[in-house]
Amino acid sequence: MRTFFKLLLIIILAFITLTFAKAKDPVRAKNGMVVSASDIASMVGVGILEKGGNAVDAAVAVGFALAVTYPQAGNIGGGGFMVIHLENGKSTTIDYREKAPSSAFRDMYLDEKGEYDMSKSTQGWGASGVPGSTAGLLYALDQYGTMDIPEVIEPAIKLAENGFPIDYHFARTLNHYKNTFSKYESTKKIFTSEFGNFSDGDLFIQTDLAHTLKLISEFGKEGFYEGPVAKLISEQSKENGGYISLEDLANYEPIEREPGEYRGYKIVSMGPPSSGGIALIEILNALENFNIEKKDWGSSKYIHIVTEIFKYVYADRSKHLGDEDFYPVPKEWLLSKERGKDIASKVSTLAKPSIEIYPGTPLPEESKQTTHFNVVDSK
C-alpha cells in the first residue's frame, strides 16, 4: 500500500534536537532536516528529500546507508524501532527488533555449572537473533513511503561497491576491535586491514554487502529473508553454534504498535520490546512527586533526585522489560502512578548503590554500540 500524504517522521527517539552540523545553537532549516551518526548517510537522506521523497523515504535510505557507513550500529544484521508522527495527527510505531530463533531455550547462555556466561550471549553466532532491520525499513517504505525500493537503496549500494573514505572515529573503532574481528575469517576479511591498522581517509569497500543490497533492491524482503542470503545465514549459523534457521528468517515480520501517552500530554515513543517509552513515562511519574522549580535546574539537589530515579527505573528495565511475544511485561504496574510514588519515596539524601535495588541481579556493562536518526520533511 502506498500512502501519499504529508508527514513528519521521528525515528528511534522522539527528540529532534541534533543536526549533522555540530553547533551550540539550534540549527534551523526550511525544507527538512536529516540527523544521523554519519555525515555521509545524512547527506543520502537529504538527497532523497531533494528528489521529492518524504521523511520515510529519506529515513529508509539513511537506514540502509548506515549499514555501509556506520556498521558498528546501523547494520542490516540487527534490528530497531521506528516512531512516526503524521501531519494529520496520527502517530504510530514499528517494532523491527531482532527476535530469538525458534530453537532458542531458557538455559542457552548458562555454562556447565549452570551459571550465566556473558560471552555466550554477546559473542558469536549463538548470541545472534533473527535480524529485523531490512524487514522493518521495507515495511515502513511500503506503508508510509512514496518511492520504490531501488531508488532509496541505490545510494547505499554505491557506497558499499565504490567505497567511502573513513573518518578518524571509524578507523579507531575498527582498529580497537581488530583482535575480535580476527576470530572470524569472514569478518576479518572486511573489517581488518592487511596493512596493519586503518587510517583516517582510507577507502572502505564492502563488495559482499553491495551484493546483498542489490538482492534486496531487486527482490525486496525476499532478497534477504529467502534465497541465497538466507541460506548463507542459516548455514553459517548452524556450522558455528548458532540457532537461526531458514524458517526463522522466512517467518520474520515487523509489528506496528500504538505509542503511549502521559498526563495531559501525548508522548510518542516506543513500547516493548524497546524500553525507552516505558522508562520515560516511569521517570516522569516519579519526578512529579517532587517540587522541582526552575531555579533548581542543574543544582546538586536536582541531579541527585534525577540520578536516583534513573537508578530505580533502569533496575526495572533490566528486570522486567523484554519482548512481549515471549515475556509478560508488567506494563500497567511500571506505568502506574503508584510505582512512580513508590520510587519517589525511596529517594533519600543518600545515594543508593544500583546493585542493592534488586540484590542478586547481575549488572553487566552494556554495549554502547547503538544509533538513532531523525528525519523531518518540508510538509
Any overview of this molecule?
There is one protein chain. The protein is α+β, with helices and mostly antiparallel strands and 379 residues long. Helix content is 42%, strand content 8%. The strands form two sheets. A six-stranded antiparallel sheet has the order 2-8-1-3-4-7, with helices on one face. The chain is globular, with a radius of gyration of 22 Å.
Query: Describe the biggest sheet?
Result: 6 strands, antiparallel
What count of helical segments does DSSP give? 16
Label the structural class. alpha+beta
The shape, in one word, is globular
Residue-averaged pLDDT, rounded?
A: 86
Strand content: 5-15%
Percent helix? 40-55%
Which ranges are low-confidence, i.e. pLDDT below 50, for 5 or more consecutive residues? Answer: 1-22
Report the order of strands and helices: EEHHEEHHHEHHHEHHHHEHHHHE
Give the terminus-to-terminus CA distance. 21 Å
Supply Rg: 22 Å
Identify the strand order in the major beta sheet: 2-8-1-3-4-7
List the helices and strands and how they pair.
Elements: E1 7-10, E2 32-35, H1 39-50, H2 55-69, E3 80-86, E4 91-96, H3 118-122, H4 133-144, H5 149-162, E5 164-165, H6 168-176, H7 178-181, H8 185-191, E6 203-204, H9 207-219, H10 222-225, H11 227-239, H12 246-251, E7 255-257, H13 276-287, H14 300-320, H15 331-334, H16 337-345, E8 374-377
Antiparallel strand pairs: 1-3, 1-8, 2-8, 3-4, 4-7, 5-6
